[in-house]
Amino acid sequence: MRLQIEHKTLFTYDEPITEAYTEMRLKPSDVGGQHCLAFSLVIEPRGNVMQYTDRFGNDVRHYDVLMSHQRVSVTAISEVLTPQLLIDGEHELTPLDEHDYLSPTDYCPIDEDTRAFAKPYVEEGNQLNTANAIMWAIFNYFKYEPGATDAGTNAHQVLTLKRGVCQDFSHLMISSCRSVGIPTRYVSGYLYDPKLTGADAASHAWVDVFVPGPGWVAMDPTHDGQQTDRYVHVGVGRDYADVPPTRGTYKGKGEEELDVNVSVRAIE
């Protein structure tokens, strides 16, 4: 499927700030049969945008504004060709990746409650079936409810609340799979749904689990299914903290307000 994504981010401040540094992880990946055909980035105030590849292989754009300002706008426009089924092709983890994708994090703690939640779904000797069963459980026993959580909610809190959004369900699946020895990573991207536009559309999150044989398998606990051509893969990490679409720092006392508008449409 050929998709176009427009991701607009507006930062406003109630008083002038200076020395703002912003990182952006917005460019779709070239991985697993997905191809980013075009990518443009427009930023105001204008500045020199630089690029690097982070530890997880994600494309990162960054720039700074030294002068006084009260507004930063970032518009990323991408055109991407998505495969029916994303096949990563990585069949063996490095020791560092194995460590990172099995270890607890602030968003994905591993505790007795997490282990107790995952245990009934373990199928000995079959990690793929185990991961599918955990995904099914999250989809069926947790309620999708925007506003029930916030950007700082971790998997343990989601387990208690029994509700959340895609970021929360991804963190819970990561914690659950790691608790039973399945390497799992967070995936940041987009999901094409023609019913959602403007303020109703948003970035999406799901997970990759690493199993013997296939390697990385993409799973979406919010929709109880694998990644299809409606998904746009942008970046991966241990949890959301590794792949936020935008983040930064600035000097000043101004309070920041964030407004995000995303549209994803199919190109005939």
Low-confidence stretches: none
**What's the total number of strands?**
14
Helical proportion?
Answer: 10-25%
Helix and strand run = EEEEEHHHEHEHEEEEEEE
Distance between the termini: 9 Å
Q: Give the overall average pLDDT.
A: 93
Query: How many separate structural domains?
Result: 2
User: What's the main sheet like?
Assistant: 7 strands, antiparallel
As a percent range, the share of strand residues is 35-45%
Q: Which CATH class of the largest domain applies here?
A: Alpha Beta
What integer value in Å does the Rg equal? Answer: 19 Å
CATH fold category name of the largest domain:
C8orf32 fold
Shape: globular
CATH architecture type of the largest domain: Roll
Quickly give the structural class: alpha+beta
Instruction: List the total number of helices.
Output: 5
